[in-house]
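Pipeline run #58 for the internal structure catalog. This entry was flagged by the ingest filter as a single-chain record with no existing model, so it goes straight to prediction. Upstream metadata was stripped on purpose; only the residue string is passed forward. Reviewer on rotation: M.T. Logging verbosity set to normal.
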Amino acid sequence: MADKNEGINRREFLKMAGLGAVGAGIAGSALQGCNFFADEKEAKYAPRASLEPTGKMTYRTTEKGDKVSLLGYGMMRLPKNDNDEIDQEMVNRLVDYAIEHGVNYFDTAPPYMKGKSEDATGIALSRHPRNSYYIATKMSNHRLALDGKSGKELYDASIEMYRTSMKKLKTDYIDYYLMHNVGGDTGIPFLKQRFFDCGLLDFLRKERDAGRIRNLGFSFHGKVEVFDYLLSLHDEIHWDFVQIQLNYLDWRHAAENKGWIANVNAEYLYGELHKRNIPAVIMEPLLGGRLSNVHDHVVARLKQRSPESSVASWAFRFAGSFPGVLSVLSGMTYMEHLQDNLCTYSPLKPLSDEEFQFLYDTADLMTQYPTVNCNDCKYCMPCPYGIDIPGIFVHYNKCVNEGRVASSINDENYRKLRKEFLVGYDRSVPKLRQANHCTGCNQCSPKCPQGLDIPAELQRIDKYVENLKLR
């Protein structure tokens, strides 16, 4: 009996995988030297000759006199133990090492690590003198508002969140407090529902006047009109800092990514802040790890330019080279991540004009590679049907970047690539949590800071997987 896919040609197969003509080159390239099941630590940070930092941390000073480390510790991707719980002992070790080597800015939020990040951060930091570090946390009331809360109900729940953050962080003041994740959903109406109409922004300003909030700002994901509106209020409110997504891919290419909410080029965001002298805190310098897990062609390009530098260090040097940047956040799960970033910023060697152009050209090249624009932030989780959404996207992106997506059923490497993709998929994501179980309920997409149509991406990947299984 003839296989139902017998007539599928190369072009059709690539379309199923979400690849175009470029995909054919991707799949056929870089087959030598790729360690498909490499440890995450090795995949994300190609190690230097020595990971022990030898210089001193670079600091940026605010108008209030805060001397802030250029490397900030993002407490969103903390290490876990075998029980899938935060490994507090390892968190303590990482925080101790970071402080010992000059890091003093620690960023967390109520929803991070399934609501446990602030607890872990408070335990680790409270073992050190309070004046030796700065705490940043957030009013993460977007999910409360999405669930229908407004007015006094939203106000009361948000104030409780604020006070709970202080308890968990074991402090009576917050150094850097943010209105979290502004710009999404319906734009300005949603912003006003969350912070203006219910009086929360007035409350936060009074808390700043009282010293319980030392610096007030917002983190931006989304629609440019929200960003512009908030900056138009700067003379009245005086934003002490703003957190934006900035990296060498998003510098000029964020607006080209159809379907993203985060579709404002970082060049614009940073420029608007810098001309107002508002310090910028940088999130996603690695795009959730995607700028360290780049395609092998890009790795070769970066290594040819600087063989001793890690792939990740290019992204961190880019983010840190702008003078208006106060701190660059990194979610450092492993000691190797922390050490590598410390080497980059102890001290920072700013990019030259030629190196900036090299990274702009690298970003142009990277736009050809059709990965899913997922940063593994896990805001979409938990899925009501148990699907491991970020796990599926991470596996697919890894395969694309390593040239492990089959381009044609007639390719001489097809069977090998087919096996590796399917075996890796089953190892990475349990069968009951794979894409074929998506019902299309779309409870996930409104929570995605990148504005992905998550059910559509899951269906695309599932279609590719099912066609692989047929042969």
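catalog note: The beta strands are 59-61, 67-69, 71-74, 105-107, 134-139, 174-182, 213-220, 241-245, 280-283, 325-330.
catalog note: The radius of gyration is 22 Å.
status: ready for reviewer M.T.
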